[in-house]
Each structure stands twice: as C-alpha cells, then as structure tokens.
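SEVERITY: medium
COMPONENT: batch folding queue
REPORTER: lab tech (J.R.)

DESCRIPTION
The queue accepted two submissions in a row. Attaching both inputs and their returned structure tokens so the on-call engineer can compare them side by side.

ATTACHMENT 1
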Amino acid sequence: MRNALVVVTLLGFSGIAGAQCVSQIVRLAPSDVPIGNRFGTSVAISGDIAVVGAPAAEESLGSAVYVFEKQSNLWIQTARLTLPDRPNHRFGVAVSIGPISRAIFVAAPRAGTTQGMVSAFTKIGSAWTGRFDAELSSSTIFDGFGRNVLVSASVQSGFEEVFASGADNVYRQRVSSSSPLQGNFTGVNYFASNSAALASYGDFFAGTASSFGSTIIKSINSQFNNSVNRYPFGVGGEAFVGYSLAMTENLLAMGVPGSFNQPNSSGSVALFRSSGQVYWGQFVSIYPSDGQFGDFFGASVGASPTRLVVGAPYANAPAVDSGAAYVFTKQGTTTWTQTSKLAPGDLQSSDEFGQAVAIDGNVAIVGAPGVSGSRGAAYIFNLAAGGPIIQQLSPPRTISPGERVQLSVSAEGTGTLTYQWFKGGLPLQGSSSVSGVSTPTLTIDPAELSTLGNYSVRITDSCGTTASSNIFIGVRCPSDFNRDGVVDLFDYLDFVSSFASGC
C-alpha cells in the first residue's frame, strides 16, 4: 500500500540560532485504523524500517503494530502485526527495533490473562512472519509485564540487550540475532520500578525510578553492580521526572514535562553527561523558545550523537493541544541549541503531535495519536534537508512528430517550491509549442524533430535546489515508416502497400 504524497507545511521561528532546514518526508495514516486505536502512541525507526504502534484501549478495536519500509525513496506499509491468539493485550504500547537482528520488539502489558509479555517479529523472505514470545516466569495476573521494551546493541559484538519493564521491575535478556527472544524472562530484576521510560547506549542502561522520582543509571559491563541515581536540579514535586529517556554517546536526556516552575513553565529536558565512568552529572536543561504553560515539553525524547528531538504533545500550535516537536543540535562540546520546530500545518485540536518521537541519524519520526478521532498518524522528517526530495519523475520515451508530450515531476520540500525545466543543460523558454517551463509539468505540443534531447528539472525550496536526472525524449523520423529505427527500402514498400490499400 503506497502512502499518499504530502505537501510540507512546517511552522518555524525567526531568530533561532543556527536554524536548519527540515522537510516532512511523509505522513503515515493507514486507512484501516479504527477510531480510538491511537496509531502513533509508540514509534521506532532504524535505517529503512519504521514501526508505529496502535495499542487500542478497547480490545474490540484490535491493537496492532504497523511496519513501514523505505523502497525507492518511498515509505511503504509492508506489514500489520497483531496477536490474534492473545486477547486484551494492549499490543504496541511500546516498540523497538533490534540494531543487529533487525527484529521488531513489541510490548503487550495485558497479553494472556493480563500478566503481559514481549513479542519479537522477524522478517522471513519478504514477510514479517517470524514470531517469538517471552513472558516473565514469576509474573501473575495484573502484573502488567511488558509495559515498555527496549533493545540496544551489546558491548559484546553479535549480541543484543533486551530490556522489558513491568511487575514492579526491569528485566533483561542478552540474545543473539538468530533468536531475538530466548524463552521467558527469568533473570534478576534490576530495580524496583515499573519504569515507564527506558534508555541504553554502549555500556550503560537507564530507567525511571518509582513514581517518576528520579532516573537510575547502571553499568552493563559490571553486571549492574554499579549504579547512580540522578534527579535534575531546579524542579519541584509532581514534575514527572524521567517521564521519557534517551541515551547517546555519553549523554542522557531526561524528560521532565511537569517542571512548570522552569522558564515558560512548558516542561524541560535535563541533560547529563559521563566521562566514561559510572558517574553522570547534569550540565544543563533545555526548553522550547516559545513554550507555554502545560505544553508537556519532554513527554518524549529521541537522541542521536548530534541531535535531540523532544515532543510537546499539548503545545497550542497551530491549534489547542495539537502538539509540536523541537529539534536541538549539538554545537561544540556541551551546547545544545534549538534549531527547528516541527508542527505540520494539517494538525488540529487534540492531535497530540509529539506524544512519541524517535530519531535515527538525520531522520525522525513523530507520533500524533489524537489525529482524526484518535485514529492517529505519524510523520517522518528529514532533519538535514538540503533541498526538495523528488518522489516521481516521468520516464524516457520515444514519440512521433505532431504528438503532445508532457513531462512531470512530484517533489516535497520546505516552504514554496519553484521549478525550472532544462533541455541539454540550458533553461527552457516558453513558446507557442512549449509551456509550463516553471511548473511541475512541462508540455510540448506539437512535438517536432527538434524536440529530440535530454530534459531535466531543477526544484528549489528554502533549503536549496535539487536537480533531477535526465529524461531522454527520442523522436521518430517520418521516413521510418515501419518504425524499426532504420530508413531503408522496406519503409518505402510499407508506405506503397498502405497507400494502395487506402490506409
């Protein structure tokens, strides 16, 4: 199923230091998602795979997880994952992608008799049909194991660490790429917390302590024997400390969306860093430049070595509680500067854009589970856009003199797009037979022998210019009557035969 192409509309700021171009690549909103399913509650992205959870609150609606894969520069839905044999599961409340196995891990805290479980799906051929389930051996009814799941690359090459929370603790499996889950979780629990948020990178793992009181950081290498408990400075009670977490190279980003005593009372994200030891110290908190009271900035956070994406699902831009997400870019060693604000122009009241975010390199995905009566949607962005992205371009062709020729391009970019068509590397000028030289569609009517040549188009937006590949237009010679590419006696004979028959 192909996703509809969308025109990009982003709300931006003037005066943001080091502002960078961001383009919306696609809006994901499968047509089979029912009202109330909240597609976009959870998101994950890694390379050419994006995963979006739709964990319906009412099981009659059918919880599901949707898989999208990038094919020929388009994000195509390739699977809809479900647990038909496990009722009442809230399947998809959290999702993660294995960095080594490329398996998709899904949390289902109400699976079975509501004790919960984690499932992993693998791709067999072109279909996501492999499935592995794991529960907590000691769990009982209503434990809610599988409230969250996280997979990270292990310090031991070829292995992955799978973390799952619930039943008042966080549990861990070290697994190989050949078997994404190896039986039920039976290992020692690591700290008393249902941990709504989990994060891991390299040698370290972090999880939220009970009742959002603080965040515990543990060393994987030391078998979790060494740990520290961190609380951000300058926040009061009921701040939802650690509501979201993300880790990257020696950086921990801790969402504190209820820190209303901070600047503009919109919420904050506390940043901690490590010099490679267990000790982690806070060095700054970041805030949105235009935040307002109750935006819940920090409800979600995604991290890469050079960028942070932070969700504020109750921001009032462009409508009440329509939501927003903010991009911060690393400048120097310790400075993180807001460089972009994401708020697609089609958002409406209560869409909750920013409820979930994830980032991989220069690409981010943002969930908006409140869209269209809580059917939900998700948006994928290029955070380092260098110009429009060409989605479709007319193919080469051979035509006959007198035909009408149309060449078209479909592209997405930031702001207003402008077009210029070229022939043989030179800009085309409009004439009585050539029109649309500065539009997405070039028309030549009628075509002549001189129409022969290579055509291309350059598209410009506020981020730069993108040039298309050449489209070769061949023109048949009128003397090549039988159109075999050669002018010879057979063309004359075919002409005489047609003339004699009256055709």
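ATTACHMENT 2
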Amino acid sequence: MSYNSIWTYLWDVLDEGIDTVVEDVGEIAGCNDISLAVTYHSVKCYLPHNPKRKIYFGEDGVTYFRPNMGLYRDLLIKPRVSNLVEQQDEDVLEKLIERAQAAGLTVSAWFIALHNTPLGQAHPECVIRNVYGDPYFFAPCPSNPDVVEYYSTLVKDLGDQYDLNMVQVESPGFAKFTHECHHEKTGIPIRSTEEVLLSLCFCRSCRKRAEALGIDVANLQQKVRKRLSAANDGFGSTEAEGALNAGPTGFWADEEFREYVKMRTESVNQFIGEMRKQLRSDLPLYVLHEGRPYGAWVSGQDLGKLAGVAEGVLTTCYGQDAEQASRIIRDARAVIGQGGPLMAGHHAIYPLCKGPEDLAKRVRVTTDQGADGHVFYNYGLMPRRNMAWIRNALCKQQG
C-alpha cells in the first residue's frame, strides 16, 4: 500500500474534533496517514469548514506537542510550547495517534525546522547573517552548533514520546532572502542573482567552517558585495530563474563561491545527519524539499546526498500544472536515484489545483515518474469537497 497523507494543523484537530478529522482523512479523502504540524511558524489561516472559527492566527515558532523539558535543561535554546497545547488536559497528539491507529491510519510529524523568528530574536547569534552582517531573525543557521543541538534534541524528543509513522523535516537548509512575510518591501526586482547572493550566510559559524577549509571569506564577501552593488544601482539582475538549475558553477564561475556553496551543503547534510542520529532508529526521517531539484543548492541541499542521510525525500509540486509536476518528480528521481524513497507533495486547493481531474492527473503523472506516495495540502484550508477530489485521484491512480 502506498503512503497517502494530508498535512494538518492542531487547531483543526481541536476545533473539528479528533474523530471527525480521522474520518475525513480516512473515509472522505481515502488517505492512510495524517501529517500533523508539530512545530510551526506564524500564519493567518482562512478555514472554510471549521465549525468554531473561520480565521486563525497561529503562534510563531512554537511546538504543538508537549516536550520533555528535562532534555533541554542544559541547552541554550528552549522550546516554546503553543498555548493550544498548554490549555489541554490531555496530550492531543497522543490521542490523535490512538484514534487514528484504531481506524487503520497512522500519524506522521510535520516538523518545521529552520524557520523561527522568536528563536532568532532571542538568540541573534544563532541566525543567518548576510554579506553586510544583517541578521535574518526568521532563519536559524544550520552551521550553528546550538541550533543543531536544539533541533536534533527536539526530533529525539518526538520520537521517544510518540508512536509516529515518520518525521517530515521541512526547511532544514539555509533560508532564502525572500521570506514572504514581515510585509517585505524592496525597491528593485529580486531575481536569481539577488536571491542567491542575499541568501548567503556569513555568520560566525559559517565563516569559521569556511576558513577551516581554506576559503578566503573576506575576499568572497568583497566580490559578493560588488556584484550586488551592480544590481542595486541598476534595475536588478537579468538572469532567468533557469540559471539556478545550472548549479553553482553555472550561476557564477567563481572558485571561492563554488567552495563556499559546497561548505553550505556539507553543513546542511551534517545538520540533517545529527537529527537522524538522535531520532529513534526505527522511525523514518524524510526531508521535505521545495520542488526545484536542480536548484536545491541555493539552500544548501543536495538531494542525492540527502537520500543517503535520511530515509527519503518529499518533493513539493505546488502551484504547477501536471506537466511541470511531472518534470519536478522526474528530476528528483534522477537526482536521488531509483532506489531512494520519494514522495510528491500536492496542493489540493483551487485555483492552484483546478479541480478533481487536474488533481487526478497530477497524482498519475508523478506516480509514473517515480513518486512512491503523495501528501496533500491542507486539511483545514481546503473546502471539505476537495477531500473527495483526493479520494478520486487516489482511486484512479490505483485503478
């Protein structure tokens, strides 16, 4: 049986009720797993079928499970627990797992990693700093030892406490400059050059790692600033987005830049590797990757190498038509190889998904290109009718 799941928030489980969510996911949508957000960033949600509210403002940088606080006693960074969790007399995640298993379903942990503004504001020494030294408070740096220790402990905590099916780690790499929040304002177009160069981290931890490899970090910073200045003084860069698919050398044929990108990739691999080491050995770890397999180097990810660190890769096909979704999974399969587990993430929300036939085509073509399972976005955000779209898509794919 293939793995089919729906990404879900805790407030949906509390407002709809555990039994309703389990029934919706299993009976109406035809899935066999619920992927619950166990950590999350700030969000404003419109909830079309929620019986108690239509708008919910999610807390920023909190856990949606009860951590074992003793594990964090000697750590610099401590978990911030959601008020939703603190207000409950029972452990909702534990109850959800029990009810899901009784109905023949499993529960997976949807784990948002390096996307946490309160953490960054409390510990500015732990975040990405751009070439000018400016902190990105929303972006903990995967090279920072305290960040690695905190997130690997958090994953261990999850695995030790709960009978989960898998852990899906989202945002395990270097965050991009464009963050789509904080009412971002720019006076020039942010194209591929600006995005990549402004996303490079030159925090103390990254500089230390690079200098240990013999990279002249000061010289690289000078070249990055010079290239950004040319864009800032004009109308932005002219490179097409496709330039990112050519890899770091195709983007910029500079040896120090190439070596710095390689250092970033090793840092992310080590970060994910430490989470894998701390997580219970029988609990699979999947890396959730934004759907651009050949451009993953921008965030320090190498899907081919990650497939050897984690158990599998979950690649999103958001906002694409079926043909583009097919190419994304084809490219991801080519990068990770035929043996590595690969799942596809789909929007099941109009207009990003046009309807039941569109979703069915996406599931079919991504399966044909090597996807072993599918995860759909998002239980609380989609109208209830869209859950039938998912069942229809899975039934057609299964014949």
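NOTES FROM REPORTER
The CA atoms of residues 149 and 343 lie 28 Å apart.
No errors were logged for either attachment.
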